[in-house]
Amino acid sequence: MTVPLCLASASPRRRDLLNQVKVPFTVLVVDLDETRLPDEPPNKMVARLASGKATTAKNWFVEHGKPVPAILGADTCVVIDKEILGKPASRCEAVCMLHKLSGQTHQVYTGIALLSGTAIQTQTVVSEVTFTRLTSAQIENYCDGTEPFDKAGAYAIQGMGATFISYISGSYSNIMGLPLHETYALLSEAGWSGS
Fold it and tell me: What is the pTM of this model?
């Protein structure tokens, strides 16, 4: 496919990751209710939200009479002890999240959805992250900065949050918010070759 690619995401990390692998794209930030459905497992939630972002973006193009490009949607969450952690809404929430993650292993789920024409393909990737035991001072100091506030689980593996991590299993880029290997494979399987 030689149509352009649109990333339906506000995440600067997802933009950085696509740029890293030289995928040309445009960005359309969509508004989607990201509330978890009752008893919805994390893998189903991120796949649903990724698909919802891609579909919402497609609807925007149609409503504005514009050609619909291939659209990539993604959603990420952190899970510890069956509790889903999204982006912290406050400093207090970020501190609480980091105390929960301290000294524990958690999972990072990312759902990706590629909408091309009338077909939508989805995939969910999970990685495991183990945090070292953090002191209250480390957590407080980290939350004094801006890094925790637009990331699921209140940390950035590509920033100072990396100093909290003693071990990862799985895709590093998944933990950042876009599993590159799986995303690139999904694009290739759909015949995408850039513009």
Answer: 0.92
